[in-house]
Amino acid sequence: MTVTETPWTPLRNPVFRMLWLAVLASNAGTWMQTVGAQWLVVHEPDAVTWTSLVQAVTTLPVLLFALPSGTIADALDRRRLLLGVQLGLFVVAVTLTAFAALDHLDPPLLLVFTFLLGVGQALTLPSWQAVIPEVVPHDQLPAASALGAVNTNLARSAGPAAGGLLVAQFGSAVVFGLNALSFAIFALVLLRWRRPPQPPTGHAERFGSALRAGERYVRWSPVVRRILGRVLLFVLPGSVIWALLPVVARQELGLGAQGYGILLAALGIGAIAGALLMPRARRMLSTNQMIVSTGLGYGVALLVVAFVPHVIAVIPALVLAGLGWMMLVSRMNAAMQLFLPNWVRARALAIYQLVFAGGQAAGALLWGQFASAFGLGHAFATASALMLAGLLLVRVWPVHTHENDDNAPAVYWPEPHLMYQPGLEDGPILISAAYRVQQENVAAFTAAMQRVRGSRLRTGATQWGLFRDGAAPDTFVEVYLVPTWDEHLRQHEGRLTETDEQAEQHATALAAGPPTITHLLAAG
Fold first, then answer.
1. CA distance readout (Å), 316 to 298, 304, 307
2. Mind listing the pLDDT tens digit for each residue in 67-80?
3. What is the helix (H) or strand (E) element at residue 256, kind and residue range?
């Protein structure tokens, strides 16, 4: 195994190591908080509903704030954004601790505080994910992504186990206080990190247009859409474990808070094992083979929980589930980080988090209600059936990650020189490019222009078309509409990538010379 293929290589980077440990402390505190919150409501008359609601309101803020957070993270200094969010989370967690210590924390108020903490996590995740490619080399991103999953699952094992012990001995207020301390630790580490000066990005992009640009990029990127679809197909049925495991621990297995921590530790152990196996799995299995193998393992684990409700069987099943969850999620996350260009990375990763957390939130609500109506066993069995059914789509809807595409910024368009200079917010702008194509190259040229079409739509265009001149059949005219002059200038100034340039060069090589470009401005 080469140095770059070891699972732990990114930790040799002092900045990544410092941030990784800080995130580990924060994640562990968050899971201790979740254990404390769920154990407070597990004794309520409708425990299944309350525990699933705790899980739902933890992830619901991502649905509401992830994309705006990603837009902000692409526009602002990510270190300062992370620092401000951690300080806000510290204040919320300290207030929650005070209410719990004074015994003034009923379930509805607990849900409010849980939601506020979830808002902070929604603001943290896109910035943290987008920072990783800044601090580790490109060839170490898969290992860094796997370490991110190890981080989460170490927290899932150590945090709940410690949280269960502390809740049993001292009550929930103690774990809420430790969660507040974890945010303070993260803030201190961010204060010590001196982020290198970032290259100038020109004038600031308006929030609304930046939000729409991120949405357009994902809509017109088939690679990203396939990754998001596969994550949803896995997380929606897989979330049954995270939503209902406290109830399984108490009602089916007769365990207390410490036993629940042990079950979560089994998931964490499986995740760590998955991280250790990831380098070998990446060499031996294609992306789609990994999707099938992890889905099969997770589906079998759900069947064991459904039909063999004994601790001696459930613990190894949870180890298998943790391994499958970590390998699939980290593989998809690494594929996103490797593929995305920097200008839209936080926004696209925010949409990834939106899909991921949305699947968990929807699954938590779905499986909570399903278990209330039909029982825990039927809920786990149905989730297993859905997981296995999703694997049937791999053959007809495979995931191609294109991780070797060169998505470094490429500024290769000449600066537009106009007699009339529009304002930045003027628009729409209609750009046309006229090509002359010999008859023998027409089929290849029109096929090549479909890749160009994707490039235009991902980077700013709202409409695109390719037309043939009826009076001059060798003339083809590409036209595309951009909402504002500012949006078009951003195509000139850094949104395009080396892969986009290669697509244009291929199409131009099939024509008789470079195209003639015109910029048509909206009249009046």
1. 12, 9, 14
2. 788 888 777 777 88
3. none
